[in-house]
Amino acid sequence: MLDEHALECYNRAGRIAREVVQRGADMVAPGVRLLDIAEAVEAEISRLGGKPAFPVNLSVNEVAAHYSPVPWDDLKLQEGDLLKIDVGVQVDGYIADTAVSRVAGSDGEKEELIRAAEKALERAIETVEPGVSTAQVGAEIEEVIRGMGFKPVENLTGHLLTRYNLHSGKTIPNVRTRHGEEIEVGEVFAIEPFATTGAGRVVEGTEAVIFRYLRDRPMRMPEARKLLARVRERYATLPFAERWLAEEMPRHRLQFALRELVYSGALHAYRVLREKEHAPVSQAEHTVVVTEDGARVIT
């Protein structure tokens, strides 16, 4: 069970996440830079008294997750682009995670794809209650998305949230599975259906702009040693963006240091995830607290 302090922090984080993701959604239009959206959203998190639980993910079209702009990124939204805005907020380590999808301009099929993810999320939230299997929630998500003529992304899942931990063991699949785990009172889940017109799977690219501290490792490169100490102190177990470190050192030295730290096993790199057939992907996400009466949405 969650104590009063934990519940208060989850609720505060949820309120902030709900407000800032809408701020990002309101900015979506052709010609808008992704970097401007990212900076506005993360600044608003701080202004409202929270901290980012991870860098805001701004994933366009076939990119499903793990992209966040870098300072030298001049990528702008084009007419018809489908943008996923995935925001995490933490208050004293208690995390709220939410996402919305928007089309820059208009595109009827992509807007219907967004509705499929949103309706699947609604069904999933209705299904969650103590004693229900996570497999049943996944089956409901899949039924909604396939019923609307699309495919769920089968190798992305929702996840259990605990203090300072975004992925804490249990997962909520987006498809029917043979085995699941029982949902319990007091658990906090981020539920996030993804829908696509493609193969229904994502694959890792080579690019990584989001990282997480794993462990201390001996490093020859002075910049790498300095950077590792800095990210351990600032971000601990939570992901951070290359963009957040841009003032630490010149671009080429920063990127070299990050590569060295990943290669040594000191950092985990979150590779950008793309739909296998390069088809557009939509996402909808809420964080819920499981109560005796079902799922209470906090975002």
Explain this structure to me?
The chain has 299 residues and is of the alpha+beta class. Helix content is 33%, strand content 28%. The chain is built from six helices and 15 strands. A five-stranded antiparallel sheet has the order 7-6-8-14-15. Strands 2-12-10-11 form a four-stranded antiparallel sheet. β14 (286-291) and β15 (294-297) form a beta hairpin.
What is the CATH-assigned architecture of the largest domain?
Answer: Alpha-Beta Complex
CATH superfamily heading of the largest domain: Creatinase/methionine aminopeptidase superfamily
Global shape: globular
Which structural class fits the helix and strand makeup?
Answer: alpha+beta
What is the strand tally? 15
Report the sheet-strand fraction.
Answer: 25-35%
Give the strand order, joined by hyphens, for the main sheet. 7-6-8-14-15
**CATH topology of the largest domain, what is it called?**
Creatine Amidinohydrolase
What is the alpha-carbon Rg in Å?
A: 19 Å
Count of discrete structural domains: 2
Please give the count of helices. 6
List the helices and strands and how they pair.
Layout: H1 4-26, H2 34-47, E1 51-60, E2 63-65, E3 82-91, E4 94-103, H3 108-127, H4 134-147, E5 151-152, E6 158-161, E7 171-172, E8 188-191, E9 194-196, E10 202-213, H5 222-235, E11 240-241, H6 251-264, E12 267-275, E13 281-283, E14 286-291, E15 294-297
Antiparallel strand pairs: 1-3, 2-12, 3-4, 5-9, 6-7, 6-8, 8-14, 9-13, 10-11, 10-12, 14-15
